[in-house]
Amino acid sequence: MAIEQLGYSVFFIALTSAIAAVARRVNDKLSKEGLVKELIFEAIAAAELCGCCFELIIVADNFGVATYAVFLFTLTIWWGLQWGNATACPYTYMEQIVQGEVSFKEAALKIWAQLMGGCCVYRYVQLYWWLEMAETHEGRAFEECAADLKVNLYLGAFIEGFATLCCRLASKVISEKDAKFGAFIDSFIGTSLVVAAFNYSGGYFNPVLATALKWGCAGNSALEHIIVYWIGSCAGAVLSVPLFKTASFRNMFLADKAKAE
């Protein structure tokens, strides 16, 4: 595949990121501080995440998982710098519910905003694919999608859950240690786990992302999708909260902090 074809994907991802950056700035200036403003930020972040990841499917299919990994690693760092308090991921708020940091109502509204942003962005992606400026986009705008789950339903849920647990624990450790290159380390760990799970469950580790990209695709029923990508991932994330607080875990990964405490 010619490298110029990759340029169309780079352009789309850059355009999507630029539009999201402008939308965030407009929301910051025009919206009053409060829940509504936060909901809009979540919708923008989810739209940017899912819009870029739709195009990353094109990259993976045509240029390989290694190229996909480089893009994902770079984008993860970018999103960490740009999104502020938005997460574009439901289980971060589920963790906060467990810790008593946010109400169920507020968490539900933010998850709803994420789903709206993530699912509605497909029309924008579809329009770009429909133009078929690149060979890699030919026939993709109205193509029937296929599920990424290539293993047993419950093994897929375990993979998504265990990888999410590892991601969340790594993020918490990096955050508490305030590592100098924390963003790069966190992105590397997350990207590595995605690549490791890519040919088994798809390696989404984010229910909104999985739903926006793969809900209704041939190969999985709605219930199977929920079990693997919602229950699996969210269970892993919620489990990370008490596990991170255990003495054995902290002694293993936060020895200096544990002694100071």
Automatic annotation (TrEMBL):
Belongs to the MIP/aquaporin (TC 1.A.8) family. AQP11/AQP12 subfamily. It is found in: Membrane. This is Aquaporin. InterPro entries: AQP11/12_channel (IPR051883), Aquaporin-like (IPR023271), Aquaporin_11/12 (IPR016697). The chain crosses the membrane at residues 6-27, 65-86, 183-206, 226-244. It comes from Aedes aegypti (Yellowfever mosquito). One of its GO terms (cellular component) is membrane. Keywords: Membrane, Repeat, Transmembrane, Transmembrane helix, Transport. It is a multi-pass membrane protein. GO terms for molecular function: channel activity.
